[in-house]
Amino acid sequence: MRVAYNHDAWLYSAAVQSPFTGDVDGYQVVLKARWRNQFSDQWFASLGPNLTYSSDDWTDDRFGISDTESARSGLASYSPDGYARYGLTGSLTYSLSAQWSVTATAGVSQLTGDAEDSPIVSDIGEATQAYTGVFMSYRF
């Protein structure tokens, strides 16, 4: 479930997410603020911070390590509680036509709390995570 509010060039949103597939238990609460600007008929940009809280069950499914998983992986057993992640995301979109557009996106996020302390992160991963992507969209 997501709610959003527009104010001038800013979009504020809050969402509660919980998978219905059964592969992950728990929930996440996601808060975002996005500054948006259309520079021309074809160019559009957005930039903004985000904050995510994950419940104990969600965090355990993603960052916990059972005794069986520990024996297989060599990582220490770990049973985390909830955590927060904060970050910054930006995107730049170019409209090729009324239907087609290309978007480049980049962001960085920081894991905190029990997720940051998980052996999955501290031994083989990174608490600071960056990402980039490029995709095409078609509007019906």
Based on CA atoms alone, the radius of gyration comes out at 18 Å
Given helix and strand content, the structural type is alpha+beta
Q: In sequence order, what are the helices and strands, one letter per element?
A: EEEEHHEEHHE
For the largest sheet, list the strands in their spatial order.
Answer: 1-2-3-4-5-6-7
Helix percent reads: 10-25%
Number of helices: 4
Subcellular location: Cell outer membrane
Family: Belongs to the MipA/OmpV family.
Keywords: Cell outer membrane, Membrane, Signal
Pfam family, one: MipA
Write the layout of secondary structure elements.
Layout: E1 2-7, E2 10-17, E3 28-38, E4 43-54, H1 56-63, H2 67-73, E5 83-95, E6 100-111, H3 113-117, H4 119-122, E7 128-138
Antiparallel strand pairs: 1-2, 2-3, 3-4, 4-5, 5-6, 6-7
Key phrases:
membrane, single chain, cell outer membrane, 4 helices, 17% helix
How would you describe the overall organization of this protein?
This is MltA-interacting protein MipA. InterPro entries: MipA. Keywords: Cell outer membrane, Membrane, Signal. The protein has 4 helices and 7 strands, in the order E-E-E-E-H-H-E-E-H-H-E. The protein is an alpha+beta fold. The protein has one domain (2-138). A 7-stranded antiparallel β-sheet has the order 1-2-3-4-5-6-7.
In short:
It comes from Marinobacter mobilis. The protein is of the alpha+beta class. The chain is 17% helix and 52% strand.
